């Protein structure tokens, strides 16, 4: 793997003077041209009692991000792939690690003290669990993200060998994965970029027999900019459609395409989503493979319940 790395942090000595146990969970942060926000996130991660190793994947920043990380957090591993990998930067970062578990943060998110240890304990205790979908608290007032309630009420129920309700969606900045499961399914799909990329990963984990479960006691913090996020609605709809073409039955993919085409008549974001999806459709068709019927039934149950 190409890229550039700063010094790696190792286990800190225990209070007795003996070496501490190797860390179970490392954190991967993807970023692009958000230096100030990233440095705040790294400050928060550095203050965690778990002292997790942190890897930053700089997706081609031009604002001095790499230099600032080296200066302020020399113990952070910095990877510079030389291009914008978007969400697939998380896969790039995870592949460079050797911890059994990987937590993801964005450059505007971090983890509550103790959350990473709780996630690792849950993963240790549930060997089929591939991904922990955490509770997310938003902003300086720690307001619950609306997705929390959806995850808690998932109609998929709780399987006997998993620690919480099964889900087929989550927030990437509030997820902890079993590294070997994550890499086994290919991580975040490079075709989708950022914005609604999570469902495809959840589908692929489920299709490979790995559990995806909501664990409310694991808590992440997210403090996004209050301003508008240009183009995000279009990316979300684009990726919803591409996910259908990548994994869903043909009639489902065609139905979603037809619905987006209808919406595009008077919705500029839908028009943009349709145009973006059309450019990526040949690549999606080349990588298309149907998800197992069991997973498709679970997806339909979620759709009927929404």
Characterise the protein shown here.
It is a single chain. By secondary structure, the chain is of the alpha/beta class. It has eleven helices and nine strands. It starts with 24 loop residues before the first strand and ends with a helix. The N terminus is likely disordered.
Compute the gyration radius: what is it? 19 Å
Determine and state the CATH class of the largest domain: Alpha Beta
Average pLDDT rating: 94
Total domains, how many?
2
CATH architectural designation of the largest domain: Alpha-Beta Complex
Strand residue content: 15-25%
- Major beta-sheet overview: 9 strands, mixed
Instruction: Fill in the CATH topology of the largest domain.
Output: Spore Coat Polysaccharide Biosynthesis Protein SpsA, Chain A
Low-confidence stretches: 1-15
How helix-rich are the residues, as a percent range?
A: 40-55%
Query: Helix/strand-derived class?
Result: alpha/beta
Alpha carbon gap, first and last residue: 41 Å
Total count of strands: 9
Order of helices and strands: EHEHEHEEHEEHEHHEHHHH
CATH superfamily of the largest domain: Spore Coat Polysaccharide Biosynthesis Protein SpsA, Chain A
* Rough outline: globular
